[in-house]
Amino acid sequence: MSKIQGWASIAPHQPLEQKTFDVGALGAEEVEVSVEYCGVCHSDLSLINNEWGISKYPFIPGHEVIGRVVALGEQTKGLVIGQRVGIGWTAATCMHCQQCLSGDNHLCASLIPTAGGHLGGFADKVRAHWAWTVPLPDGIDRASAGPLLCGGITVLKPFLAYNISPTARVGVVGIGGLGHMAIKFAAAWGCDITAFTSTASKADEARGFGAHHVVASRDPDAINAIAGTLDLLLVTVNANMDWNALLGTLAPKGRMHVVGAVLEPIPVPAFTLILGQRDVSGSPSGSPVDIARMLRFAARHDVRPEIEMFPMSKANEALAHLEAGKARYRVVLEANA
Questions:
Q1: Longest C-alpha distance within the chain, in Å?
Q2: Same-domain pairing of 259 and 186
Q3: CATH number for the domain including 168?
Q4: pLDDT in tens, 136-180
């Protein structure tokens, strides 16, 4: 009998409870990882409260896992016991559909999220398919690397998918858990960066992360002043915005790319797209290859999320800190602390 102990969500809007789960024998292609750190993402709150209607209780939250391989199924490949690895949003995919075979594994219709029905990283151990258990590159800071496995790949994916040039002019809407990482990655990429924020106090912080310009995101005049200038506008917020004004900031052939979970429909005027040959798009995280590339890039350029540490035993306090909007800018749980 094999067991996993962690902080479990039992029902929506309830505190996590420490529970032990019998998980049975390790699958032939599964890896078991001893958790050292796990990031706390706003998506964990959404899953705990079943805001997206996909949660299956009980489950252990956490999908930004950094740890050490402690067991390998007999058909796993490329990993060794004791290796430091990361597990992000995805625990497994089918590995035989068109998306998986073409390198878009993260779009697999049979994708199993690491949390939400699976036993995630707020635990002593976590399991995942070997392909989604990504080795950490040398030199990366393990304590802060967890949020890169979700937020980091989420904001870097459009740079990889759309061949964003280092000379591109990039706008980032929202300077929060996703947005601050987007600025750091865009700065390391070499881009000219405009940060959009509704919080005036974050202007200096945004510049410290690498932004060259800061615009008030609730000021139509300020937004209109940069109309037609941006090649990529990365939307990291989950709130309703002045979408028409934001679309107007795009240069010809510019792209607005949405990675924030905006729950209301986004109106898109057809002529704004047609006359400037502009695009509106979105994406989830990324494939294992994308994640490995992101981690290597982050290690090479020392791209680190700004983190606040909590012991794993204080998981409920960490979630309350995040829900209150106090996180600056990502929260990480440390196991055995």
A1: 64
A2: yes
A3: 3.40.50.720
A4: 999 999 999 999 999 999 999 999 999 999 999 999 999 999 999
